Amino acid sequence: MQAQQMLKSMTTAGMALSLSLNNNLKVTPAKSLNGELRSTLSMYKPALVNCLQRQVGNGGEPPPDRCCWPTSFAMNGEKIDLFNRRGDRLGAQGKP
To answer: What distance in Å separates the CA atoms of residue 77 and residue 59, rounded to the nearest whole number?
Structure first.
């Protein structure tokens, strides 16, 4: 499995993988880290670290949605668009 695919499948499963300041991998939520996942992450650590480092923009800032759900409780662009569509639909029905 390639690093990018692994990151995507973890996100789909409600987990997030990030780098600590000393380039260790951090799984969120930590309770989702089992023996099998730990082994897989260890096997692919160099590729995952490289992939996560490339995701950080040129200015050292991560892409905006990288700091959002599921990594944090903030809403990402997709969730905000969905929220706005639901609000528009309720407004069209005459509901505040």
So the answer is: 21
Averaged confidence pLDDT in the chain = 77
- Give the dihedral of Cα atoms 30, 34, 35, 40; nearest 10 deg: -80
Specify whether the CB–CB gap between 64 and 77 falls below 8 A: yes
Give residue limits of the domains in the chain.
Answer: 3-92
- Tokens of residue 85, six digits: 């569509």
Residue ranges of alpha helices (H) inside the chain are 3-12, 35-43, 45-55, 77-92
Residue 50 pLDDT grade (very low, low, confident, very high; cuts 50, 70, 90): confident
Contact 16, 48 (CB under 8 A): no
Length of the chain: 96
Least Cα distance to 63 among 49, 81, 77, 45 occurs for 77
On the question of pLDDT at 59 being above 60, the answer is no
- What pTM, to 2 d.p., does this model score? 0.54
